[in-house]
Specification:
The protein contains 13 helices and 14 strands. It is an alpha/beta fold. It binds ligand FO1.
Length: 322
């Protein structure tokens, strides 16, 4: 069985390639829930939904999140209340776009959680309803919430203020500088999938943001220890190519949080838990520096611009782990 540590879009694209290489039922994805948020009283799990929708071929291909062929009737109907809600009210947040079909997922998840179901149970029901055979496991059934601290006074607030991940990523389009990241609840949350981390033939760290998508998983008790114990069969794919992230703020966050925004910076983050780092051909000249961090380095085209390229990357990843 292959275990994949997954964030959002990059991980979803990699998994779409992996299911072409190994049977879906042989794959377990442990997915970040630090991005999860409650809006309109609805429990929203963006990374779980992005992975589910992508594997169901139902994702919106342009946005990379939410469902394709969406309508936005409910969201536009909310706009009328923005003018009347009291100052400071969090109701009718129109900055986080929820499509009409996507809302159904949040209705179901919220109602099932309120009935006492665990997030893992609900995730299994939702992925089954979308015909997804990959075993999707939230990193924990307990709430873990990612907060970022503002580095400067800015539109999002004063220097030193904490905002939620989604306020950072969506409301402020990750355009504000960050001085630190915190995973509230991680120290007491119990990690799911530890048995999988111990028993999987190979563990893949998907090309997700190491600091806000993979780090929440690693912050849970027992995860880093489990990975370190089997680091020779753990392989990571760098989400940074030629110093930049293909999508999202990974490169800026690396710099803002004191790391080098390069494959060497990624190697330094992953070396304790991972034996092999896969980097893009654009970074081939840095392979020896990655190896100097004590990791094997594999150079391949890691840009998953087509399903075929995702498949090739998945195949190379599995071969490099053996
Ligand atoms: N990302 C955005 O940039 N803008 C949005 O309005 C937005 C809405 C949204 C709704 C549901 C969902 O599952 C994801 C959504 N995302 C949106 C992506 C979300 O911010 C993810 O957390 C990021 O993709 C990072 O993983």
């Amino acid at each position: 069985m292959i275990c994949v540590l997954a964030g959002g879009v990059g991980a979803a694209r990699f998994l779409r390639g992996l299911v072409q290489v190994v049977p879906a039922h042989d794959i377990t994805a442990i997915v970040n829930t630090g991005d999860d948020t409650v809006l309109h009283g609805l429990s929203i799990s963006p990374d779980l939904d992005t992975v589910t929708y992508t594997l169901a071929n139902a994702i919106d291909p342009v946005r990379g999140w939410g469902l394709e062929n969406e309508s936005w009737t409910a969201m536009s109907a909310l706009a009328r209340f923005v003018d009347v809600r009291p100052h400071g009210s969090a109701s009718a947040p129109t900055w986080f776009n929820l499509g009409d079909k996507d809302l159904a997922t949040h209705f179901y998840r919220t109602a099932r959680l309120r009935e006492g179901a665990t997030l893992a149970q609900v995730t299994s029901e939702i992925s089954q309803s979308f015909g997804v055979d990959v075993h999707l496991v939230p990193m924990s059934n307990d709430r873990v919430s990612t907060f970022v601290t503002l580095a400067n006074d800015c539109a999002a607030g004063q220097q030193g203020t904490e905002i939620t991940f989604q306020e950072y990523f969506v409301k402020h389009q990750h355009s504000v500088a960050v001085s630190s990241v915190r995973f509230d609840g991680a120290s007491t949350a119990s990690a799911l999938g530890l048995d999988t981390l111990n028993s999987a033939q190979t563990v893949v760290i998907a090309p997700s943001n190491p600091l806000v998508s993979i780090a929440p998983l690693r912050a849970l008790q027992g995860v880093d220890a489990a990975l370190t114990k089997r680091r020779e069969s753990v392989v990571a794919i760098s989400p940074i190519i030629a110093g930049a992230a293909l999508k999202g703020p990974a490169d800026r966050l690396m710099t803002e949080l004191g790391h080098e925004s390069s494959v060497v910076g990624i190697a330094k983050l992953y070396a304790p838990i991972c034996g092999t780092l896969i980097i893009d051909t654009a970074d081939a000249h840095l392979a020896s520096k990655v190896e100097a961090e004590g990791m094997r380095c594999v150079v391949v085209d890691t840009v998953m611009s087509t399903p075929e390229k995702s498949q090739h990357l998945a195949r190379t990843t599995l071969e490099s782990a053996r």
